[in-house]
Fold this sequence. Notes:
Elements: H1 5-18, E1 31-36, H2 48-66, E2 70-72, E3 76-77, H3 82-91, H4 95-112, E4 123-124, H5 128-143, E5 147-157, E6 162-164, E7 169-170, E8 173-174, E9 182-191, H6 197-202, H7 211-221, E10 223-233, E11 236-242, E12 253-256, H8 271-283, H9 286-291, E13 298-308, E14 313-320, E15 331-334, H10 340-349, H11 382-392, E16 396-401, E17 406-407, E18 420-423, E19 427-430, H12 458-461, E20 462-464, E21 471-474, H13 482-485, H14 488-491, H15 504-510, E22 515-518, H16 526-539, E23 552-554, E24 558-559, H17 576-583, H18 585-594, E25 602-603, H19 606-626, H20 635-650, H21 654-668, H22 675-685, H23 690-699, H24 715-718, E26 722-729, E27 732-740, H25 745-753, H26 756-762, E28 767-773, E29 777-782
Parallel strand pairs: 1-2, 1-22, 3-4, 12-14, 22-23, 24-25, 26-29
Antiparallel strand pairs: 5-6, 5-9, 7-8, 9-17, 10-11, 10-13, 10-16, 12-15, 13-14, 18-19, 18-21, 20-21, 26-27, 28-29
This protein binds one RNA strand through helix 7, strand 11, strand 15, helix 10 and strand 25.
Amino acid sequence: MNYSFREIEKKWQNIWEKEKTYETKDLFSPKYYVLDMFPYPSGAGLHVGHFKGYVATDIVARVARMQGFNVLHPMGWDAFGLPAENYAIKTGIHPEITTKKNIDNIRNQMKITGLSYDWSREINTTDPNYYKWTQWIFLRLLEKGLAYKKLLPINWCPSCKTGLANEEVIDGKCERCGTETTKKDIEQWVLKITDYAEKLLEDLDSLDWPDKIKEMQKNWIGKSEGWEIDFKINDINVPVFTTRADTLFGCTYLVLAPEHSLISKLKVENKDEVNKYIEKARNKSERERISEIKDKTGIELKGIKAINPVNQKQIPVFIADYVLGHYGTGAVMAVPAHDERDFEFAKKYNLEIIFVIDSVKDKAFVEDGILFNSGEFDGLKSFEARENIGEFLKGRKKINYKLRDWIFSRQRYWGEPIPVIICEKCGIVPDNNLPVKLPYVEKYEPTGTGESPLATIDSWVNVDCPKCGGKAKRETNTMPQWAGSSWYYLRFIDPNNNNEFAEKEKENFFMPVDLYVGGAEHAVLHLLYARFWHKFLYDLGFVSTKEPFFKLRNIGLVLASDGQKMSKSKGNVVSPDEIIEKYGADTLRMYEMFMGPFEQAIVWNEQGVKGVHKFLNRLWDFVIKNKDEELDELLVEVNKLNKKVSESVEKMKFNTSIAFFMEFLNYAGDKKASKNTLKMLLLLMFPFAPHICSELWEIIGCGNIMVEKWPEYDKRLITEEKVEIIIQVDGKLRDKVEVDIDSTEETVKSLVLQREIIKKWTENKEVSKVLFVPNKLMNIILKK
RNA sequence: GCCGAGGUGGCGGAAUUGGCAGACGCGUAUGCCUUAGAAGCAUAUAUCCUUAGGAUGUGAGGGUUCAACUCCCUCCCUCGGCACCA
């Protein structure tokens, strides 16, 4: 029969809420901190994909509690961001109102799913009591010179009308809205994440994270070691950065980035042409640049020559936009023989190509090798030559990173105000009177001029300088969406503290996060930013660990039944509410875990949901049928189940855990189970399906399951006395035989050779060899 | 182009210190139940050979081994990321 999940689930959720079952109370050890990436409270609510991660961490949290851990498992809202603001522009409804409504809805979705969050620790990044500390961290960065203001050509989204960080530009498009970005010169707040490049790279090794994410961060940071070597143009030193100092004798021209400061100082014969090229390069969008990778353009500086320092040869000088102004020195020594880009360029402009390592036809040879054509350095290996040539030319050893500083200001309303006052006399003055609250405005529309809508509120903008008392103006830019999420995991530890972001003792106790679960899309955004802030706070002595998240796991997407990503605009979203209404929260939870490995993307299939629901109904019937049973035919089996489930949960292979439960019930059939067996079964399943297990636990007369421990299996019970041995002839399965455990080769062999099936296969043939793997297999090899 | 993950029935997937490939679920088929349907229950379900029984089979090809989904080499494809970083 169908168990009445609606009633049962409501009943237990009320009990948990009333008894504050999931509140983390003390500093007792051992602790376990399980964290989900907190969501943006979208108006559409969350879909079943979000809950795949939440259910997984909920199971981990529940198992850990049963194992005696003091579990911290909180939830909050990353609530600043564009959708609420865009909605406000359209409707005039303040983002605060929409946000609150959305949060109430999503919190309810989480509660009806039976997630065991400690709601007393709920946080919201848009709450002034929260962003006070976001601003406080910003002021510390400012104090230490890690936040600075600079006029920069930055990525600009014409649709969102705001600047973007490099990490937010995907394929030349805005990460949020998909509009092509352009370049714009605006004065920006920038955070010096590059100061932490080395530490961010190094400490990756200490983390239990998916290789994929580590690799992505490594590539994003992009470390390369080389030499800075001075070339000369008219007695001016022009440093270039190279990782291939060993190829210097093959350098046949020099290339400057269009932005290079030297260009304006040179007397170039074809000045007009050159300026035209520079102007064109400036206006190229990201996308144009990318599409032109295969077709390099450039222009020679006529009348200018550079001197190659290694052989005093005169070489031509070019400007080309394949050389980037912001990396290295903005100038490169071109070695067409040993660099693909230089090779292409040289072919196009008919420049000299001199091989000095090894030559191949029609393309550059980019590997290391042994030098020739290189004067006194002939015969050296590449790695030796790099050092020798670098030192010979008095070059400087240099490490460069691809990572660039973090563009931190946004020209929008719905974000944390940057707590800074700009005074005509004193310049940039920190406003220590935190929180600097976001004022109400009438119009949310971004101005598009590079100023945020805050700039129009005179009463807010015009203030007295805290330093000199003179006239001053507030900074009107706001922080990016990533600010609040860069440290939120610290606030959960002590969410109501008004004096510090978290009490030192508590921070020291709960950090680091033991398990962090979320989508892989944040690999070089949130996960990099949070590590940066954390390391900064560590250096200042405010936190006690070098890294915030010890173990990270990514959830795979849940795709809609059409194989596409779930999205409101495609109308293919499945909400947890409808599944819970139809089948119950326990079914939703079990199905999300049963779908497949949880790090993998899998298509949603409601037939599968029904299958899981059927299983829960069968579980119900099985327990009810046996609740007063004294006989037990399943004690051994349930102990085996205990072992298998414990092991699979440990590895977070929840899909197989559930298969084991199903196997058990299939095997059980009409066999009898006593209370001990039922209890073990229910305890094992409780983290997966807490409502039905709580109810059945009560029905079999055991009280409240919440206080119970994770069960231990009895090793003696599950030790087999007989084992099945696989018998192969010439490596092919022919027979099986049951023998006592640890039977010797001789025993098994004599048994096997008597068997009719085996006799048939070995008839008239000579046995050349018999292989035996104890308790597993015997392979009889015949002579050919 | 570079980096990473992966390729197993009709579908989602299981099994890797090398040892019964396809657990579990979905779907499908047949039967029971039902006035009928739905639900439920039972049985079957990798492919090929008419069957007993056998052969083949984990992207393709090769190799190591008594034994390969698992290890090695070459290649193909899918997904994700990066994108002229000298």
